[in-house]
Structures are given as structure tokens and as C-alpha cells.
Amino acid sequence: AKWNENISDDIKRYLTMGLLNLVRTDSLCFGCVTYSLGQMEANWDTLPSYLKDLIVIAGKNTPNKLRDQEISNTIYGLCLMQASWMSLGDEMRAVLLRSLRDEMVFADDLPQHIANTLWALAKMDAAWGEMPTA
Less crowded by CB within 10 Å, the N or C end of the chain? Predict the structure, then answer.
């Protein structure tokens, strides 16, 4: 189903709230939620503010910093939602930067996770000056 065509607003809200409740127990779920919304062709700029707020709150409340696949899925999903780096807002950028600044973010050293993250950041026109350096 496509986000803007086949799903009623009530179902969107319940689906998103249910998925975001999973985030409380597993950081990977946060990445899966944003990736899934992107796959369903949701658009960040047209998402209702309560959904954006739920996503930001969930990101802030993930039990751990996002690692490898989690950060890759999250940023890639946001890119699929046509988000630009600046349109994410300060709080969402802070959620992402908190994980990207962690020296263990790509500890598993999987090239696909690194490449997907960098590609999505470039597509989102990320502010490279804000990105952490080694």
C-alpha cells in the first residue's frame, strides 16, 4: 500500500503509534519504521506534525544509540521520504548526529551500511560541516 493513496488517516495514526511503541525495546525497530514509511512513499514534508513528533520522540527515546543497520535504515528511510537535511528540524538532526558521532556507529564495518548512509545523507543535502570527523 502507498501511504498517500490507500491508507486512511486513522489507520496511519494507529499503525505508526503501534510501530513506534516497538522502539522502546529495540533501536532496530526505529530504523525499520522510518525505512518502512519511506518504502510506502510517505513524504516527510507532508506527514502530519503529530507523526513527525512521534518519530522524533521515538528517536530520542531509543534505548541505545543507533548502530550500523539501524542508522543506515533510518537515514535511508528519511531519504526515501524525500526529507532534506534542513527539513528534518533540529531535534531529528540531533537524534541522527548523536549516533553518527559515536565511534562505534559502524563497528561491524559493513560496507553496505556505510554506503547507504553516505548516499542518503548526500541525497538529503546534509550539512557536511555538521558531520562528525574521525
Answer: C
Using DSSP, state whether 80 is helix, strand or coil. Answer: helix
Per the structure block, which three cell numbers stand in for 42? 510517505
Angle between helix 27-39 and helix 49-60 axes, rounded to 10 deg: 150
pTM of the prediction?
0.80
Residue 114 CB neighbours (<10 A): 16
Retrieve residue 55's grid coordinates: 518519530
pLDDT tens string for the chain (134 positions)?
Answer: 577 677 777 777 777 777 666 656 566 677 888 888 899 889 999 988 878 888 888 788 776 677 888 888 889 999 999 999 999 999 999 888 888 888 877 877 788 888 888 899 999 988 777 776 65
Q: Are 37 and 3 in contact (CB under 8 A)?
A: yes
Residue 65 CA, distance from chain mean position? 13
Q: Count CA atoms within 13 Å of residue 18 on its CB side.
A: 6
